[in-house]
Amino acid sequence: MSSHGSNCRYAREPVFNWIPYYQLVANQKTSTSLQAAMALPDLFVPGRENFAADLGSGEGRDTLELLAQGWHVVAVDNTHVAMEKLAERAAELNLSSRLQTVEASFATADWGIVDLVTANLSLPYCPPELFQSLWQRIASSLRPGGILTTQLFGDRHSAAQMPFVNTFTRAQVEELLKPFDVTTFKEVETPGQWANSGKPINIHEFQILARKREDSSNPSDRNICPSPSRSTTPNTTAFSATRTQFGESTRPSLWRWPIASRLRSFVLNLLRFGRGSSAPTAAKRRTSTTSPCQSPVN
After folding, report:
1. How far is Cα 252 from Cα 240, in angstroms, rounded to an integer?
2. What is the CATH number of domain 10-284?
3. How many CB atoms neighbour CB 165 within 10 A?
């Protein structure tokens, strides 16, 4: 494990307003993780349409680079201002014809079948109860031989104590990666700071570049582990975006956004606790000594 050398000093702060972070990174170079993926000699195939999905695209730092390299890109983000800015920048560069924007949470959106999924510092902020289904859909959306590039937070990240952030042990990440042939897997721990507030934090993350196996079984048949000590309550109001023609965008109803779903769950929990029920204790949790999903013992 490396104790230094993270690709980023800043981290997305777990807040509902992503605009300051997107503005901070909008004019920075393409993320290091995507640069590594684009350097693979067989990723982009000349002579045919190559499709990529950018999950949590923001104002399009990575999306615009992919478009410039000839990709068709589905950019997914639920921040309206960021989606507008991305569309404007793509139009200025005459790249709109190969861009589709989906204004929705990537946790529930549909981006079709692609050759590349890039999710730069976004997957940790998927609602924890939706992470398992999201990971399955990422694997299912990749063609055999397709590439995933992303980061997952480790259990020593400063965000580990926040109930709406996903963190993982190394064993859990290795379990998640079973449908893939791993090209790059780096565990990094380094001091950093939140992009919005500037507060110091400990960054502990797994940097991943992986290829879906040609003979990979349907990942929906696998028991993919959710984040440790996270709720698995279904999100009954999740929005699933439908793909449209490239150059257009989709936008969900306001009340189907994840923030409304979280508020609903919060109110239901308050009512439930008010009737005398209590949160589950560690002793009540089902554990297995052999399960890779088991939470670490404190």
Report:
1. 8
2. 3.40.50.150
3. 19
* Residues in CB range of 124: below 8 A, 6 or more apart: 12, 151, 152, 153, 159, 165, 166, 167
Take residue 53 and report the two structure tokens written for it: 């999905």
Token reading at 111: 């981006």
In the three-class reduction of DSSP (H, G, I as helix; E, B as strand; rest coil), residue 265 is classed as helix
User: What pLDDT score was predicted for residue 163?
Assistant: 87
- pTM value? 0.69
How far is the C-alpha of 153 from the C-alpha of 158, rounded, in Å?
Answer: 9
Higher pLDDT, 194 or 276: 194
Cβ(111)–Cβ(76) below 8 Å? yes
d(CA 20, CA 17): 7
Classify 210 as helix, strand or coil: strand
Query: What value does the mean pLDDT take over residues 61-74?
Result: 96
CA distances from 224 to 73, 132, 175, 235 (A): 27, 6, 7, 18
Task: Please say whether the beta carbons of 13 and 197 come within 8 A.
Answer: yes
**Class of residue 284 by CB neighbours under 10 A (exposed 0-12, middle 13-18, buried 19+):** exposed
The whole-number average pLDDT for the span 57-75 is 95
